[in-house]
Design goal:
By secondary structure, the protein is mainly alpha-helical. It contains 3 helices and no strands. The chain has one domain (about 1-70). Keywords: Membrane, Transmembrane, Transmembrane helix.
């Protein structure tokens, strides 16, 4: 009977560790979503997307029509 009591006590620590790990993961997701939301609300995310998309088309001046179509 003493052995069962010790095993039950050992399992309660596992739940605490699992809760702590999931809590950290949840807060990481929340902070990441908040950062994406803030970047998109200030227009910085759109600006970065436009810069990275147009970077590949700067080398060839013949692709102005494709640039207009793809970046619209």
């Amino acid at each position: 009977m003493v052995v069962k009591h010790c095993l039950a006590r050992d399992r309660s620590g596992q739940a605490t560790v699992e809760y702590a790990v999931l809590l950290v993961a949840f807060f990481t997701v929340v902070v990441g979503l908040a950062a994406i939301w803030r970047a998109s609300s200030t227009g910085k995310l759109l600006e970065l997307a436009q810069e990275s998309c147009s970077h590949g088309f700067e080398m060839s001046p013949d692709l102005d029509a494709w640039k207009d179509i793809l970046l619209f």
